[in-house]
Amino acid sequence: MTLRSLIALLAMITLGPVFFGGQPAMAQQPSRPVGEQARDDTFTSEEIISAGHRFFGHVSQGLATAIEGLFSRYGRPNGYILGEEAGGAIVGGLRYGEGDLRTRNAGTHRVYWQGPSLGWDFGADGAKTMILVYNLNSVDEIYHRYVGAAGAAYLVGGFGVTVMSRQQVVVAPIRAGVGARLGINVGYLKFTRKPTWNPF
User: Fold this and answer.
1) Does 49 lie in the same domain as 26?
2) CATH number (domain holding residue 182)
3) Rounded CA separation 149/125 (Å)
């Protein structure tokens, strides 16, 4: 190989990516971790606790404890729902609710939810409900069924906490209201764009 051919070959190796639209591997910028990208869209525990105190109408250590417990396990939510629901059961029952989904970058959206429940669950309740929402990539993702379990073990200072999930999305209802719910209660919640009496 002549010196001229060697120079031409080196030039092609060095300048080829520039002319053909590529870049050397060293020139590529590392992408930020998904968690860092999402932090701009999330809410702090202080914001959620403050919103909860305004919504429930009083300052409660139980509410702060419930929220901080969810933050320690699931991190910062990128959405939350403030609403009201009603339900009742003797072994089997139904739950209906409506509220506003609030997000950092997609505005506020009206949502409705329904769901059956099974288990030892005597009583009836009407409750203000705050629902923390995690890993929601778009508003449309909320409109699905979420499965979970709720019971006396989730009672914190007068607030009942449930964790439900579907794929990567997690919803965590925090309830306060009149009435008693005792025992283990397994079911799901279905979120919809419009109100419906059909929980299935």
Assistant:
1) no
2) 2.40.128.480
3) 17
**How many helices (H) does the chain have, and how many strands (E)?**
4, 10
Residues 68-90 have pLDDT tens digits of: 999 999 999 999 999 998 877 66
CA distance 188 to 118: 10
Shared domain for 88 and 166, answered yes or no, is yes
Residues whose CB is less than 8 angstroms from the CB of residue 85 and which lie 6 or more positions away in sequence, other chains included: 95, 96, 97, 98, 113, 126, 127, 129, 175
Number of domains in the chain: 2
Domain for residue 199, yes or no? no
Q: What is the pLDDT of residues 122-157, one digit of tens each?
A: 566 677 899 999 999 999 999 999 988 654 335 677
Q: Tell me: do 14 and 56 sit in the same domain.
A: no
Stretch (H or E) spanning 161: strand 159-161
Residue 180 has pLDDT above 60, yes or no: no
Q: What is the pLDDT of residues 39-57, one digit of tens each?
A: 589 999 999 999 999 998 8
Q: Which residue bears the tokens 């990567």?
A: 168
Determine the Cα–Cα distance for residues 124 and 180; give it in Å rounded to an integer: 7
Give me the domain span that covers residue 181.
44-192
92, 99 contact by CB (below 8 A) = no
